Amino acid sequence: MSLDPLLLEILACPQDKGPLYYFPDGEFLYNPRLRRRYLVRDGIPVMLVDEAENVDASEHERLMQEVSAKNLRPTFDQGSR
Questions:
Q1: What residue numbers bound the domain in which 25 lies?
Q2: How far apart are the C-alpha atoms of 31 and 33, rounded to whole Å?
Q3: Torsion angle of alpha carbons 68, 40, 8, 69, nearest 10°?
Q4: Residue 22 in contact with residue 3, Cβ under 8 Å?
Q5: Above 80 in pLDDT, residue 19?
Q6: What is the pTM of this model?
Q7: Domain count, the chain
Q8: Which of 75, 81, 79 is nearest to 19 (CA)?
Q9: 79 inside domain
Q10: Can you spell out the DSSP letters for 42-78?
Q11: Any domain includes 81
Q12: Which DSSP state fits 1?
C-alpha cells in the first residue's frame, strides 16, 4: 500500500522536524539524521518518537545506498521550510 503523495509532502520527523525518505517496499519512513525508522501500518504512518526504531550503522548505510540507487526523494526540501 502506497502513501498518498500529498501526505508525503507534509510529513516530517516528529523529533527534528526534518524531511524523511519513504521506502514503499518496506513500508516505513526513514530519518537519516537521527537514524530512525517510522513504520507505516495499514497505510498509516506511525509518527511517534517512542515507537520509532533505531537503525545501526550498517543498516543506515544500506538504506542510504537504496536511496541513491532508487533515486528516492525526501518528503520535502528542507530549505523551503
A1: 5-74
A2: 6
A3: 10
A4: yes
A5: yes
A6: 0.92
A7: 1
A8: 75
A9: no
A10: TTEE---GGGPEE--HHHHHHHHHHHHHTT--BSS-G
A11: no
A12: -
CA distance 60 to 31: 10
Strands 21-23 and 53-54: unpaired
Give the gyration radius of the chain's Cα atoms: 12
CB 76 within 8 A of CB 64: no
Using CA atoms, how far apart are residues 57 and 72, in angstroms rounded to an integer?
Answer: 20
Long-range contacts of 75-81 (CB under 8 A, 24+ apart): 75/8, 75/9, 75/10, 75/11, 75/12, 75/19, 75/20, 75/21, 75/22, 75/29, 76/9, 76/10, 76/11, 76/12, 76/19, 77/19, 78/18, 78/19, 81/17
2/32: higher pLDDT: 32
Place of cell 550498517: 58
Q: What percent of the chain has pLDDT over 90?
A: 88
